[in-house]
Structure formats: C-alpha cells, structure tokens
Amino acid sequence: MTPWWQTTSIYQVYPRSFADSDGDGIGDLPGIIDKLDYIKDLGFGTVWVSPFFASPQRDFGYDVSDYEAVAEEYGTLEDAQRLIDEVHARGMKVMFDLVLNHTSDQHPWFIRSRSSRTNPKADWYIWADGRGKDGRRPPNNWKSAMEFTSAWQYSAARRQWYMATFLPFQPDLNWRNPEVKQAMFDTVRFWLDKGVDGFRLDIFGSIMKDPGLTNNPLRPRMHNGFPRIVQRVHTENTPDNMVLAQELRAICNEYPGERALLGEVFGPPDVLKGYLAEGAGLNLVFLFNFLTFRYDADWFRQTIEAFEQNFPAPMQPTYVLENHDRSRLLDRVDGDRRKAAVLALILLTLRGVPTVYQGQEIGTSNTRLPFKDALDPVATVYRRLPQFVVDRLGETLNRDEVRTPMQWDASANAGFCPAGVTPWLPLNPEYPNVNIAAQQGQDGSLLELYRRLLTLRAGSASLQTGPLAMLEALPPGVLGYRRADLIILANMGTQPLTVRYSGQLLLDVGEVAVGTGRTTLFPDSGVVLQTVVPRLS
Ligand code: TEU
User: Quick check: 343 and 336 in contact, CB under 8 A?
Assistant: First the structure.
C-alpha cells in the first residue's frame, strides 16, 4: 500500500495568525481546532502546524524555550493532544514543526551553558575561542543566515563565542554532544507518543557543521535566490547531516503508522535528494524553487524536469509556492488572480506532495507594512541596511507582510479575533473583499478552485501516484504534462494558443475551448483532460 505521506496534500497553519479563540488578538490551538472542518472540507490530507511551543516569541515560536510545553497564549498540552485527536477524527494527518538546530537563548539549557566554561551544560551549544590577541575576533568566517553578519556571538561571561546560524538569540545546539542528541530525540518521542504523524524539520540542513570549524570558501554568488557571500560547504548539507536524517527516521520507524519527516533544506535537487537516503532518511524535502518562480511555461518545464529527474518514484517532489517566510505568490504575478488560478492548477496536478500556506487559497496579497514597525526579527536586522540594498536583496525581508491574520470574513477583524480587540499584526486592508466567506460556494472563486482541484486529486489515482511525462511539441507559452490517463495544459503566454491534444474536460480555469483533437487555450487558462474514457463495468 502507498504510504499516506506520498499522496497527501499539506496545509500550513501559522498558529499566531490563524484563529483567535480567546480574544487576545493572538491565534491559538483551540482556534485551529475550531477550523479543522474548513481544512478538511477543502480536501487537504495533512495539517502542518508551525511551532506553538513555549517561547519568548522573539522569532514567533522558532525560538523554543521548552520543547515539551505549549506557549501560554496558544493553549495547553491538553489542547495539543486534542488537536492531534481532532485531526485524526477527521481522517487527516498532523505534522508539528521541530526546531532542532537551535533553541531560544532563554532556554534553561542555554542560560546554564553560557554561565561558565565548566557547568554541566557547558558543551550543549557550539562554543569556540575567538581569534586575535584577546580572542575578540570570531573563530572563523562562517556567516549567519542573514548573510552579512557573523554566525558567532561573543559572550563576556565565558570569554568565548557561541554559534547562532539564524539570529543571535537562537544559539545552535551542539548535536555532537551525545547528551544533546538524547535530549532532542526524547522530545521527538514525546510528540510521537502523543500520536503526531510526523514533523516539518526547521532549517534541518544546518544542524551538523564541520567539527573542525574550517573556514567556508569565500566565493560570493547567488544561490537559490539568495546572494551568498561564502559558500556553505562546511555548515550546510554536510555528510553528517545526511546521517542525522537516517537516525531520526529510525526513531519514527519504531512507531506504527508511517510517521513522516519533511525537511526544510536548501540546495540543488541532487544534493537535497541525499536526505532521502533511498528510503532510509527523511520522507520528503521541500523544493523551494517555486518560491521564486518566473511565470513562464519554459521556466516551469525546466524546473519540473529537474525535480522529476532527481526525485523519481517512489520519491516525491514537495512543491511550495508560499510559506510564512516568503512573498505571497499573488505579488509575484502583479496581483493577477487569473495567474494565481493557473499556478494552483499546476501545483495541485503535479506528481508529489503539494503544500499550501494559509490564505494562499483565497489569493491573499502581501500586506504592505512600514519597515520601522516590523515585529519580525529578520526585518530588524535588515532595517539598518540602506533601502537600495534591501531592494536588491529581494522581497519580504519583513516577514510580517505575509503573516497578517487569516481573512475569514468581512466583519471587524476579519473574523480572526473579536471586534474591539487589536490583532497582533494589522489586517490586510483587502480583507473586506478578499476573505473566505466571500469566496465560499462562489463559482469561479480561487477558494472553490482549490477545493475542486483537491477533490479531483483526492479521488484520482492518476494524480496521486501516476507518472509524470512532459508533453512534447507544444507551442512556446504552453506548459503541458501527462499524468497517466490525464493531460494537464496551461497557457502562461500572452496569446491564445491551440494544441493538438484533447479529451474529456475534467476541470478548467480561464477561457478554453476543447474540440476534437485540439484544444484552444486563451492567456492564463488551463485544463485537466481525461484521454481514456473509463470503462463501465
Ligand atoms: O527559516 C529558515 C530560512 O532560512 C528562511 O526561510 C528564512 O526565513 C529567510 O531566509 C529569511 O529571510 C526557518 C523558519 O521557516 C523561519 O520562520 C525561522 O525564522 C527560521 O527558520 C529560524 O528558525
């Protein structure tokens, strides 16, 4: 039998902004539970919940201070258990989000660790002596994820440096210390025991660094849409990190029901595939190339082909057009909702596991927010850069812009929290028009398109497990592929185009004309066609 994670579709919930059940302006676990029917009715198979664990919330949960407790504003451990059970009661799966690379600097482990060089937790984080006369220069040239800043932070108490791959308040755990490994594996088991179906693993590729602290090669160039000052050969996707994937998988394999691991990893597909270790490692890895797509048939064809080549069945590519870190897709197509519909068609008919970020299904746009008011700590780092550098670096350096409250309806506060309450981030001003209630049941709405596509997918073996083959001899502008007996076509060009493919129309977006032996697609349209008439028995 095909394991559930190979054929599922994932809906990402960002708890702080999903639904506020107790009127404090912050989303919470009971709020998510109240909305599970919504996710289920759309047709998703899996809910991935971003971190809700105890945290000072400087990075809104990606800075954990207790992995086995729920942050007060999100609820209780009982709520977390109820969330798991309620997801299961609806026949869905649930993945939690594990931040294994670093903790909060407020985690008791780190508070202890930084207090002296001899305390029992002294070696739980990555500490090193500095260079130079007083050791006041960082141990090596490793850069943080912010690119411009060192990965090392000085601690006066120890007169040493600790490593922080992301932000200074997120010290990296020392996974080469067996006690650390044990403690973190215990956490993994803690949640598996409660019945969680798997984990999304936060910046998983950065966990195992070179123990020799070798300098990274200084070779500035673009990588995955980001400018890199140094190449991260000694700090990212190291061979030891691939081994860690297999160790974690072995823990999951102790449990019934195919628990699954989905890695947030960055790199070229042939490197990322190493994490899957031919079935013995992570189950899935995010392929983030779609986050920086060009709306262009040729771009999609090439990108899909590269993934197909590197992730043939039973491996599954994991496609992602949006998440809580990067721009909403609508802003990448100048707000053109027809293009958003074509992208939904592609995302949900490809081979592999599609992921959808809350609000994507109604075409939420980035909320323009002044940089100076940003709550996002990443924006705080970049705030010091001159605007022209920020512009060149790309979009959504202020991640608040993609984390504003979910737009449930046109009432005050969009139904996210009660009227009169101030939500933790301002609402997207478009919410009176762009919201779930306005699109629910409306023919032609993006929301109903997602529902139709997910329903089609859930009921179609061809879409779930069928092979994917690119169609040949298509006019430039048209993306086309076959999934077993189905044909998917999308016109991403600017002219109406006719192709020599036809079949029974299962689903269409935009304006199309399906004839005998030919289909005409107007710009920003697409179809799913069935080529073989099913036999009646
Ligand atoms: O993100 C890691 C990451 O490298 C990026 O997606 C990052 O947010 C982006 O480069 C910033 O410009 C993960 C989480 O998804 C993110 O929300 C956390 O802040 C981060 O790890 C630290 O845990």
Answer: no
Asked about 202 being catalytic, the answer comes back as: yes
- β-bridge pairing 497-499 and 66-70: unpaired
Q: Residue 111: how many CB atoms within 10 A of its CB?
A: 14
Kindly give the residue spans of alpha helices, DSSP state H, lying in 209-254: 239-253
Q: Residue 223 forms beta bridges with which residues?
A: 226
CA of 325 to the centre of ligand 1 (A): 6
| Residues comprising the chain, all counted | 537
Contact 331, 499 (CB under 8 A): no
- Which residue puts its alpha carbon closest to atom 14 of ligand 1? 202
Report the run of H or E that residue 459 belongs to, with start and end: none
Burial environment of residue 422 by CB neighbours within 10 A (0 to 12, 13 to 18, 19 or more): exposed
Burial class (CB in 10 A: 0-12, 13-18, 19+), 61: buried
- For ligand 1, say whether the CB of 296 is within 6 Å of any of its atoms: no
What is the per-residue pLDDT across 394-433, written as a single tens digit (0 to 9) for each?
A: 556 799 999 999 999 999 999 999 999 999 999 999 999 9
Work out the burial of residue 123: count CB atoms within 10 Å of its CB; fewer than 13 is exposed, 13-18 middle, 19 or more buried: middle
What CA–CA distance (Å, rounded) separates 299 from 323?
A: 21
Sign of CA dihedral 155, 161, 162, 163: positive
Q: Directed axis angle between helix 178-193 and helix 239-253, to 10°?
A: 40
Q: For ligand 1, say whether the CB of 145 is within 6 Å of any of its atoms.
A: yes
Model confidence over 70-97: pLDDT tens digits? 999 999 999 999 999 999 999 999 999 9
Nearest residue by C-alpha to atom 20 in ligand 1: 62
> What does the alpha-carbon distance between residue 366 and residue 356 come to, in Å, rounded to a whole number?
15
Please indicate whether residue 382, judged by its CB atom, sits closer than 6 Å to ligand 1.
no
78 is an active site residue: no
Q: Does the Cβ of 203 fall within 6 Å of ligand 1?
A: yes
Please give the number of the atom of ligand 1 that sits closest to the Cα of 167.
22
Q: For residue 94, what is the enclosing H or E element?
A: strand 93-98
The phi-psi region of residue 428 (left if phi > 0; otherwise alpha if psi is between -120 and 50; otherwise beta) is beta
The structure tokens listed for 298 are 């040729």
The CA dihedral of 11, 12, 14, 20, to the nearest 10 degrees, is: 10
What pLDDT, on the 0 to 100 scale, is given for residue 231? Answer: 87
Residue 62 Cβ contacting ligand 1 at under 6 Å: yes
- 73, 79, 86, 202: the active-site residue: 202
Tell how far CA 440 is from the center of its chain. Answer: 25
Which pLDDT band, with edges at 50, 70 and 90, does 387 fall under?
low
Q: Are 439 and 408 in contact (CB under 8 A)?
A: no
Q: Give the neighbor-by-neighbor strand order of the sheet with 504-509.
A: 468-470, 478-483, 486-491, 525-530, 504-509
Contact 457, 464 (CB under 8 A): yes
CA dihedral for 236, 273, 469, 534, sign (positive or negative): negative
